[in-house]
Design brief:
The chain contains 22 helices and no strands. By secondary structure, the chain is mainly α. Among the domains are: 87 residues, no CATH class; 86 residues, Alpha Horseshoe (Serine Threonine Protein Phosphatase 5, Tetratricopeptide repeat). Keywords: Signal, TPR repeat. Pfam families: TPR_19, TPR_6, TPR_8.
Amino acid sequence: MKNSLFIICFLSLSKLMFAQSSTAIDKEKLFDFYQTQRYAEAAQYLKTAYTESTSDLNAVTQIGYCYLMAGNTAEAEKYYLKAYQLQPKSLPILFSMANIASRRNNVEKAKNYYEEIIKIDTANFAAYKQLTSLYPEQFNIKKINYLKKANKLNPLDADIVFDLSEIYMKMHIFSLVDSILKPALNADSNSIQLLKIKLPLCLAENKFDEAIKSGEQLFSLGDSSSFVLNNLGKVYYMKKEFVKSLNYFKKVRSNTPDDNESLFYNMALCYRGLKDYIMAGDYFKKAIDAGISRNTLLYYTKMGESYEQAEKFELAASVYKKGAFFDTESNLIYIAAQIFDKKLNQKANAISAYNQVLRNLPDTEGNKPVVEYINKRLTALKN
C-alpha cells in the first residue's frame, strides 16, 4: 500500500515536472520503471531525453533522485550538485544533498548542508533532528543545543526526548528530565522508549513504587530486557527487598553470560543484605575479577619489555613484579628475578623473587629444569 501511494505521488510529480518540457517523455515507460523499481534504468532513460548540459532543474533533480533510489550515490550527488548550483536555497535539494553525504560517510559535509537548511528555515525540526544524529559524542555542546532546539520545536518526538533525557540523566539534572519526559509520555503513555527513561528516573528520585509500576508496564508491553530487569533489581534493593532484588539480578545474569563487574557487585550487595556473607564475598571477588582487563598481563609484559630495551632495569623489574599478580604461570616474577640477579646484582630481591617462583610454579615434569636452575642460583646467591 505504501509503495503504491509512493508511485502514484511520484508519477504525479513527474507529470508536473515534465509538463512544460518540449522533450518527449514516454510517461508509461517511465511509470513502468518506477513501478518495478528499476530506478537505474529510469535514470538512463531520462538522460537520453536531456543533454548533459541541461539546466532544467526538474530534469536534473529527477535523474538525481532515480540514481539515489538505485543506490548509486556517486551519480546522484553529481546531479544534485548541479541542482544545488541552480537553486542553492531549495530545502528539498539541500535535504537530498545532506542525505547523500551521510550515505557516503561524509559527515562534515552532511552537517554543512543541514546547517544551511536551518539558516534558511530556523524552525525546521527535521534538520535539527538529523544534525543531532551526526554528533556521536553524547556531551558535545552542539549536539545538546540541537537536541534542545528540536525538543522545543517538537516536544513529543520520542527519539529526541530519549536522547536529551539520557544526557540529563548522566548529568544528574533530574528535574529537566522530568520536564521533557512528562508531555511526551502524556501523548504516548505506552512508549517503550520513554518508559525506559522513566524507570531509572523514578529510581534516581527514590520514587520506588512508581519505578516498579513503570517496570511492570514495560513487561506488559513485551520488554523484559536486561536493562529493565537490572533497574528493577536496583529498585527492590533500595526497598531492602533483597530476595526480589537478587532474583532480578539472577535473571540479568542468565541473559548476559559474559562477566559483568557491576552486576556481580549488585549481587554481592544483595547477599550481604541477606547476611549471607560467604556468598557476598564470592561475588565481590567476581566483581574484582571482572573489573580487571583480560589484557592486563599482556600490558604489564609489554611495558616491562619496553623498559628492558631502554635499559631501565629498575623500572622493568618493578613492572614485572606488579604484573606477576595477574600471572598464574609465574613467568613475570621469574623475569624480574633474572633482572635482579643478572642486571642489578640485588641479591636480596633476587632471592625473594626466585622463592616466589618456586612457591607458585606448578609441580610438573616440564618445570623441573627451571626448578633445578633456580635452586642453583639460590645457592650461589646465598654464599
